[in-house]
Specification:
- By secondary structure, the protein is mainly beta.
- It has helices at about 25-35, 60-65, 75-80, 100; strands at about 15, 25, 35-45, 50-60, 80-90, 95, 110-115, 120, 125-130, 145-150.
- Strands 2-1-10-5-6 form a five-stranded mixed beta sheet. Strands 3, 4, 7, 8 and 9 form a five-stranded antiparallel beta sheet that branches.
Length: about 160
């Protein structure tokens, strides 16, 4: 993570799923479209030990809100059943619950980072940053997709 791959690639992410306005956004559009937040983070990396970085970016919840999420915003129980699935260019994936980022629940300041340690990410794509995580497993580089999906239930009676 200390070295950035600056080879040419598309830096856009597609925000889709249960939204009324799917979006395709590059790093420049993210930076220009929402307030930029800063997060100084330390996380344990399984291969490289403790990592210390400063990220700047926009809040994931604000970008998803702009896409018109498919839940009823007035109903907390409806919002709490939605998931955010994130894919990275390098094949990494992760899932967050909407409740983690929703201000009525966890309110985690999850970022779509546009810079890492002062280096703009325009050529490599945005990065998912979960400042509340102790480890860096959900830090996804070169985001290609964010999908919002609702969980409909398993259909069976639980124990």
């Amino acid at each position: 993570m200390s070295q950035l791959d600056t080879t040419a690639c598309t830096n856009e992410l597609v925000l889709s799923g249960e939204v009324s306005r799917p979006l395709t956004l590059g790093v420049a559009e993210l930076r220009a479209g929402w307030p930029v937040h800063r997060a100084a983070v330390t996380f344990d990396c399984a291969t490289n030990g403790p990592q210390h970085h400063v990220f700047e970016g926009v809040l994931l919840r604000e970008v998803v809100a702009a896409a018109g999420p498919g839940f009823d915003a007035a109903r907390r129980k409806d919002r709490s059943r939605y998931l955010l699935c994130v894919d990275g260019r390098d094949g990494h994936h992760t899932v967050l619950s909407w409740a983690e980022v929703d201000e009525d629940f966890g309110g985690a300041p999850v970022l779509l980072a546009t810079s890492l340690d002062g280096i703009p990410l325009d050529t490599v794509g945005s990065q998912l940053v979960v400042p509340t995580d102790r480890c860096g497993a959900r830090y996804i580089s070169g985001i290609t997709a964010v999908r919002l999906t609702g969980y409909a239930g398993g259909g069976g009676a639980g124990v």
